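Bumping my old thread because nobody answered last time. Still need a sequence for this structure:
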């Protein structure tokens, strides 16, 4: 198996749910745990063979830093971390709402700074990782290889488009989980046993998602193919389509996420 990263030591500064899911997947597909250092105040273990420290390691320079602390902790971490990063260090931030220019002001040394927005299915290698940043072609290729082991990796030249895509794919799983829960709840209220309703709703979404991913046809056409004229599916679709209710709901949902992201970005800029 080819090495996932050949550019030197990897530091994970912060290792919460998302960074932890990324690390689990990387280790699963062959990343050498001796290559990795996790820095977290708790000192809690982060994977078999992975070094965990409560402070930054001494006497070494990282090749790749994954910045995974909470966005509001950025200015607590940056003063100690910034002097440890060299020009060749690749800094990858998964901090939601923290813009590239904000990162550049805190970390002036690295030539390559990349924003990454993964989503939770990365743990299964079924995720999406949106990418944007200052990086040359070779660094982009290396970062793409690392992130592609988590699922689909896609670059954006425009930071606004990157941010919007992040709300779609990053927050999207939570929206979908709510849909699964609501659909199962509806089936339960109409008579199915709760556990059975949840299992069937979850399996249905998994299969339908796989079908949509494998098809060249747009989802709207796939829905049309399922719905026989005058049939039961068409009756249900009429409820979703009435007054474009579902589309309007999704627009409000995604826009609320987008607007909160803009607020977080403004806060991160002003905090510096």
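Sorry it took so long. Here it is:
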């Amino acid at each position: 198996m080819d090495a996932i990263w050949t550019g030197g030591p990897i530091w994970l500064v912060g290792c919460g749910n998302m960074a932890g899911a990324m690390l689990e997947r990387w280790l699963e597909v062959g990343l050498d745990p001796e290559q990795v250092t996790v820095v977290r105040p708790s000192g809690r273990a982060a994977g078999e063979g992975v070094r965990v420290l409560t402070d930054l390691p001494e006497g070494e320079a990282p090749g790749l830093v994954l910045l995974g602390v909470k966005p509001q902790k950025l200015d607590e971490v940056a003063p100690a971390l910034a002097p440890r990063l060299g020009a060749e260090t690749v800094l990858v931030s998964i901090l939601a709402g923290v813009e590239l220019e904000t990162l550049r002001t805190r970390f002036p040394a690295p030539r390559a700074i990349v924003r990454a927005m993964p989503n939770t299915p990365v743990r299964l290698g079924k995720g999406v990782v949106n990418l944007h940043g200052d990086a040359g072609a070779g660094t982009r290729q290396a970062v793409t290889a690392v992130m592609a082991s988590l699922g689909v990796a896609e670059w954006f030249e425009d930071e606004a488009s990157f941010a919007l895509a992040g709300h779609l794919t990053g927050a999207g799983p939570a929206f979908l989980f709510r849909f699964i829960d609501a659909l199962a709840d509806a089936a339960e209220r109409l008579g199915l046993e709760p556990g059975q309703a949840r299992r069937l709703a979850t399996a249905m979404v998994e299969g339908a998602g796989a079908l949509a991913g494998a098809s060249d046809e747009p989802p709207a056409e796939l829905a049309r193919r399922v719905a026989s004229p005058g049939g039961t599916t068409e009756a249900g679709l009429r409820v979703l389509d009435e007054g474009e209710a579902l589309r309007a709901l999704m627009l409000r949902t995604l826009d609320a996420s987008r607007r909160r992201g803009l607020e977080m970005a403004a806060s991160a800029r002003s905090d510096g």
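Residues 159-189 form the longest helix (31 residues). Let me know if any region looks off to you.
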